Amino acid sequence: MSKRRNLTAAIFVPVLIGSIGLFHLMSQPSFANIRTVDVVQLTGSGLCFGVALTALFALLRSKRGD
Known about the structure:
The protein is mainly alpha-helical and about 70 residues long. Helices cover about 85% and strands about 0% of the residues. It has two domains: about 1-35; about 35-65.
């Protein structure tokens, strides 16, 4: 049960922080000037960094668990 609670917090906190940042960005008047290709590139870069960070954490957890 504790692992499930930790996983829920690990998912909820970044989603909350990301949502706050996104809503703040959308409220800026300069948001309308952002090109679609830039948004796609930033999203792809963020996804790659997220996958790499998740893999790093999984690697560190598996080393510690052995």
